[in-house]
Amino acid sequence: MQKLGIIGTNWITGQFVNAAREAEAFELTAVYSRTEEKAEQFKTDYTAPEANTYTTLTGFFGSRGFETVYIASPNSLHFKQAKQAIEAGKNVIVEKPAFSNPDEMADMIALLADHPDQFLFEAARQIHEANFKIVQDAIAKLPSINGATLSYMKYSSRYDAVLAGEEPNIFSPHFSGGALQDLGVYVVYDALSWFGQPITVDYQAEMLPTKVDGKGVATLHYPDYDVTLIFGKTVDSYLTSEIYGGQSTIVLDNAGTIGQVDLYEDGGQKITSLGEQSLANPMMAEAATFATIIANHDTKRYHELLQLSQSVNAVLYQLRQSAGIQFDADQH
């Protein structure tokens, strides 16, 4: 297994560490946290007693004890930390959204060109799962494409803090937060992977007192159809998602975490189940994919993923501009 360092000791980091171990992809050998106590607790919680701990990024990135870093810090910190990692000769797996805007993305692409032996991946986990590819294949077989409605809404426990007058990171423009960045990125990845780059986009956002979006509806305009994206962090939704193709409709239980895929034909008279059972840990597929690309130096697949990440970054920014959402990172 390849050696892994982590930035961020929250639940999603733990899920990735478990996934990497179960997939026999990465072994945790270095933990960065602002406090030694949290770093040591993470080692204990995720059974990595031999891992080294660090409380400074200089010491962390100066270590030779790992080759790849997984970054799950607040969104606004991703760019600076990924830049440090690449300059230190590390591969990077950065949680979505990778960067706050196209300027940061362009700077990172230029840096990667100067470090051709390093890889950078955006951890958009669902695009590596079996059901995602099943949907992609099913779309290719439709007699036509007449649009789609993709939905992903989930109540955030941090929204209670907003209601109490606070500004948690995930709902703060200072940390590049909001519903579009956190959950909307999933359905933007879906749309661009399945339908390609839209001609124009617009976003009707429901704004919070913190000056970011709590939920909203985005529309991606294509030459012959529109794709509607519904996402939010202030409510729970149980809507299915649909992809329309003449008299055929592909129905997904959830566009962010695809557990069931059904094909409806002949006015709903014929229903075919296409999906596979999801992995217990939804991050296993991406961990295995990243490790394989690094091990095989598969630059073709790597650049496909990097190009997709750039496209998603551009559309997220266009949607934000449509809704008038500004981040501190946009001023740098």
From TrEMBL:
Record protein name field: Oxidoreductase
Pfam families to which the protein is assigned, alphabetical: GFO_IDH_MocA
InterPro entries (alphabetical): Gfo/Idh/MocA-like_OxRdtase_N, NAD(P)-bd_dom_sf
GO terms of molecular function: nucleotide binding
SUPFAM superfamilies: Glyceraldehyde-3-phosphate dehydrogenase-like, C-terminal domain (SSF55347), NAD(P)-binding Rossmann-fold domains (SSF51735)
UniProt superkingdom: Bacteria
Domain Gfo/Idh/MocA-like oxidoreductase N-terminal, first and last residues per copy: 3-118
Alphabetized PANTHER family for the sequence: PTHR43054, SCYLLO-INOSITOL 2-DEHYDROGENASE (NADP(+)) IOLU
Gene source species: Latilactobacillus sakei subsp. sakei (strain 23K)
